Request: fold
Amino acid sequence: MTLVFIYGPVASGKLTVAHELAKQTGLPLFHNHLVVDAVNAVFAFGTEPFIRLREAFWLQTFIEAAREGRSLIFTFAPEGTVAEDFPSRVQAAIAPFGGSVIYVSLTVSPEEQERRLIQPSRAAFGKLQSIDLLRQLRTDYNASLRIMPQADLTIDTEACTPQLAAERIASHLAGR
Reply:
């Protein structure tokens, strides 16, 4: 079982690349907003119950997938409400079932990030669209990157299409 852990800042193309990777590989996509939106329906973002439930859903899903030998794609945006040891606990949780994690970092310039932020497709998923809030969150994101292990693969999504980014990830997977 391999967990393809795609992370990056807001509007770096995580979901777009992950959808393309799922098409190319047939792997299921467990994107961040599935759990965030479900838990946020009951508990406000960042509250203790929200944080506990979000992490429990994430980890339990990874464990069950590993137990079943089912590889999957996960999208993630490091931010201040996520425990610093979350990535290491993900690895520790799936290792007993033969699971491993491939970390894929997506990058994008601030200018392109702001251009993408206002795209209508983001509204369809209830994603952040405020440039002012994005600018405030950049500092939090950069500080939160310290919790992430060294990326196995880093892709500048400004320099390639989502299809090419997915091909690079799929090639990396095949080469393991």
Q: What stands out?
A: The mean pLDDT is 90. Helices lie at 14-25, 32-40, 48-67, 86-94, 110-117, 120-124, 131-144, 162-174.
